[in-house]
Amino acid sequence: MNSGRILVANVNNVPILKFIGDVRVLMSGTLDNYFSTLYSKAILDRMVVDMTETQGIDSTALGLLAKMAIQLRNRFNVSPTIVSTNPDITRVLKSMSFDRICDIVEEPASNKVSFNELDQVNDSEDAVRRKVIEAHQTLMTLSEDNRIEFQDLVSALKASR
Prior knowledge:
Blueprint: E1 5-11, E2 14-23, H1 28-39, E3 48-57, H2 59-76, E4 81-83, H3 87-95, E5 103-105, E6 116-117, H4 125-142, H5 144-159
Parallel strand pairs: 2-3, 3-4, 4-5
Antiparallel strand pairs: 1-2, 1-6
């Protein structure tokens, strides 16, 4: 898998987040920082996550994405749109119950957008562990299958503090 990159754009006041390649736990600080900027906005009408070039995404990145979707729904009454043309990625999203908190579109967007890459944030091991726990706890709230899938991991990570 390709190493991952996270790009952002803003088109007509709509933030667009683009995942390229393999999006993994070490990008959690970068994602968390970007999501914090979204939460501080006065108004947000839409949010798009472009996963058309995503080759892989781990459960931590998925958990942070779920946390973002829940926060946007609670703060702005917005359900993010996820664009995924990769059947494997779409299957993962649906199996993790993202269709409950996001609109999943399987057709590519037709607009050409100019993106900027987010600077990589290098968190401490303890900060990454906290983000991993929080991300998985968020996934656990989405479905009983997720709760069963991740409860042992969360318990183990909490015990290793």
